[in-house]
Amino acid sequence: MTEKQTLGKLISTAKQVRRNIVELVGVGRAGHVGGSCSAADVITALYFSKAKFDPKNPKMADRDRILLSKGHAALCQYAALGELGIIDKSEFAKVKSLGAMLQGHPDMTKCPGIEANTGSLGQGLSIALGMALGLRLDGLSSKVYCITGDGELAEGQIWEAAMAAASYKADNLVAIVDRNRVQATSTVKDVLDSGDIADKFKAFGWETVEIDGHDMAAILEAFNQADTIKGKPFAIIADTVKGKGISFAEGKAAYHNGTLTQELYDQALAELQ
Amino acid sequence: MDNTTQRQVYGEMLVELGKENKNIVALEADLGKSTMSCLFGDAYPERYFQMGIAEQNMMSTAAGLSLTGKIPFVNSFAVFVSGRAYDQFRQTISIAKLNVKVCGSSSGLSDFGDGSTHQSIEDIAIMRAIPNVTVLAPVDAVETAKMVKAMVETSGPMYLRLNRNVLPVLTDPVTPYQIGKMYTIREGGDVVVFSHGVMVSRSLDAAKALEEKGISVKVVNVSTLKPLDREAIIAHTKGMKAVVVAEEHSVIGGLCSAVAEALRSELVPIEFVGIQDTFGTSAHSYEELLEKYNLTALNVQAAIEKLVAGK
């Protein structure tokens, strides 16, 4: 089982995860740096503290599931899996190359620790619901943690899943909306205003909380709160900054899938020390 | 099983198989009384997931269930599971070869009254184009029962195409069934007809009529459309004067295409009896529709005679 890290250690691990993301993006080739860095604290909190997960046995039947509905943030998950030793960090340099374990979007058939193939947006919450229903059928207490984007909430299927999860009283399902407010081409508000996300989930029958998605203590508190909710799925609306930790990328749509020069690469790593 | 439908037998088989195999679950999008998944729901309510009228969520939820070791059967009309939930089936289920069974009910023109929106003329083409997917279309209720059992026993994403109406029984319960095999329904030496579903019985009627005219017609039930046994298609064609493919599906992308692909290196005339790149329409009876779209024994007979005459 993962040894639960202390708050201080988690904060430094999150920095390491972000350094791994930068390493995965590399120099001169595009990578989803923005949405990977915005989700880094939530991912770190899950893998290194909250989730029931054994890096030595990543297929353990009663593990908690961690699923990226925003599959384009795969680099963040690879960064964490590398830090956990589930994948060898030597794979980082080969990311997205022909035959690579680390595909552009998560591929469970190639990469250990990946729970499902995602990438076509709006589908992960439904997959997570299926897992939650299956685990409950087996009498397991495992939870399913599903991270979505906020731009992704424009997909209608998200709300089909939201309705179904509440109807099935899936209290072993936790959605984390990585609300970084920026999507591929512009701000979410400009592209298609998603309005009050928490209100929407509440209206669909979910319990919700809004937190600072970069405040590690708040993230852990929200996950613990999720454990106390019975009979309802739980949505954590995590306010985050796209590209968090890399000054030149923060809040910029250009770094949704951006390319780093050697100079910017070095600067990013330096800022994340 | 003379007076029963594929869908009725499908529902009954799910119940029977679900008795032993607790991993079988079923999902439904509010058409359970048509798809007959309702039988499974009555028997095992805790393993029956009514997902409401939301096929996309249903398909991805099935993916999640399979990732916890369940064997989900996803139910709706063929047109909706292949169209509305196409991307969900492709992205998560097919790429990762998840063990999800998709049942496309009321396929082809068999939902005669509901018209073009509810009829599926391209579902096989869609499903056949997706890598890793097995595509099955039973000829009758008896084969349906064997097929459902084989689907549970064989891992991987599968599409099962079921007819809504009572069809003639052409197979027997004793003959062993295997996914991937095609079955000769009638021997013959001049022309071979490859077919699936309702059109097999029409082809058989055509073969019987042509016997009197001195034309010997072999009829093969290709109930596994993918993976298609190319060697078997070629073997059945050897020595034949011509090949006819008959199916209740668009001539684009279904068995017609599959057979033409398989015979691409063979020098043999081929004719198609299928839906000519057009949508369906409402009718008061199934037979009326089959006639309108030239899917009768007479149409198969005419296609054979045309080829034999070398016209």
Structural key phrases:
heterodimer; A: 273 residues; Rossmann fold; 40% helix; B: 311 residues; alpha/beta; 2 domains; 13 helices
How does this model look, in words?
The complex is a heterodimer of chains A (273) and B (311). Chain A is an alpha/beta fold. Chain A has a single domain, classed as 3-Layer(aba) Sandwich (Rossmann fold), CATH 3.40.50. Helix content of chain A is 40%, strand content 11%. Chain A is built from ten helices and five strands. Chain A has helices at 7-25, 33-38, 40-50, 74-84, 124-137, 156-167, 188-192, 197-203, 216-228, 262-271, and strands at 65-68, 144-149, 173-179, 207-212, 234-239. Chain A has a five-stranded parallel sheet, with helices on both faces. In chain A, β4 (207-212), α9 and β5 form a beta-alpha-beta unit. In chain A, α3 (40-50) packs parallel to α4 (74-84), α3 (40-50) crosses α9 and α5 (124-137) packs parallel to α6. The longest helix of chain A has 19 residues, at 7-25. The radius of gyration of chain A is 17 Å and the shape is globular. The two termini of chain A are 28 Å apart. Chain B is α/β, with parallel strands linked by helices and 311 residues long. Chain B folds into two domains: 6-161, Rossmann fold (3-Layer(aba) Sandwich); 183-308, Rossmann fold. Chain B is built from 13 helices and twelve strands. Chain B has helices spanning 6-20, 32-35, 38-43, 55-66, 78-84, 86-94, 123-128, 141-153, 198-211, 230-237, 255-262, 286-292, 297-308; strands at residues 24-28, 48-50, 71-77, 101-105, 134-136, 158-161, 183-186, 191-195, 217-221, 224-226, 242-250, 270-275. In chain B, the strands form two sheets. Chain B has a seven-stranded mixed sheet with strand order 2-1-3-4-6-5-10, with helices on both faces. The N and C termini of chain B lie far apart (41 Å). The mean pLDDT of chain B is 97. Chain A binds chain B through residues 107-109, 115-120, 123-124, 126-135, 137-138, 144, 156-157, 160-161, 163-164, 167-168, and chain B through 25, 46-47, 49, 51-52, 54, 56-57, 59-70, 72, 87-88, 90-92, 95-97.
